[in-house]
Write a structure and sequence with these properties.
By secondary structure, the chain is α/β, with parallel strands linked by helices. It is about 45% helix and about 10% strand. The longest helix has 18 residues. It is globular.
Length: about 210
């Protein structure tokens, strides 16, 4: 009986701590204050790690004039999905952006497509979409982009790319400056792996 009663009290505590693991989304005011604080040290780099911005917070960030000087934007585990990406793509304040890191979020093929078509990202040299939900379709959208022509580095590690996307990325006709493609830990089939290895080998000779 004692063991049963002890378990009865422990389980609710575990439940409470589990729920508490994810903080509530930041308010618009909190987002603005946080951006201001981060940019005081370096107005070229805005790095936000493990904050629950969510898509609503990203809307606030994208519309803030504070980010006009930012050339590198890092949003790591910020609970962002395709709608957050859409907000970034529509921002009038990110025209100087050269590096975009969106690691560990919930971005799908739609988000990849939005990035590939947005003039906001036309100066990007680095695009990091590590650990999202991008499949072959998203990879092909990036490969066929007519705006990401300055891109030199692309990280798509830990996504859901199988074959056609990998092949498209390694047979580029438009992204001629892209010479560093990361596709590790994707379920890539043999033909895709061969294309990727061949691409890496050829870039190594340049």
């Amino acid at each position: 009986m004692f063991i049963f009663r002890r378990a009865f009290w422990v389980l609710p505590l575990i439940y409470v701590f589990t729920l508490g693991a994810v903080s509530p989304p930041m308010s618009g005011t909190a987002v603005e204050k946080y951006i201001q604080k981060k940019l005081k040290r370096n107005d070229k780099i805005l790095r936000i790690n493990e904050k629950n911005l969510g898509d609503s917070g990203l809307v606030v960030l994208a519309q803030s004039p504070l980010i006009s000087s930012v050339t590198t934007l890092v949003l790591y585990r910020t609970h962002v999905s395709d709608e957050g990406v859409r907000a970034l793509a529509a921002s009038p304040h990110l025209k100087n952006l050269e590096a975009l890191y969106l690691e560990h979020n919930f971005i799908t093929d739609k988000g990849a497509e939005i990035i590939s078509k947005s003039q906001t990202f036309s100066k990007l040299k680095i695009l990091n979409l590590y650990y999202n939900q991008i499949t072959d379709e998203g990879a092909k959208s990036i490969a066929d982009s007519e705006t990401l022509t300055q891109l030199t580095k692309l990280n798509l590690n830990y996504n859901q790319i199988k074959g056609p996307g990998a092949i498209a990325l390694t047979h580029l006709k438009k992204l001629l400056k892209l010479n560093n493609i990361q596709l590790a830990y994707n379920p890539i089939v043999k033909s895709g792996k061969q294309a990727w290895k061949r691409f890496q080998l050829m870039e190594g000779f340049k």
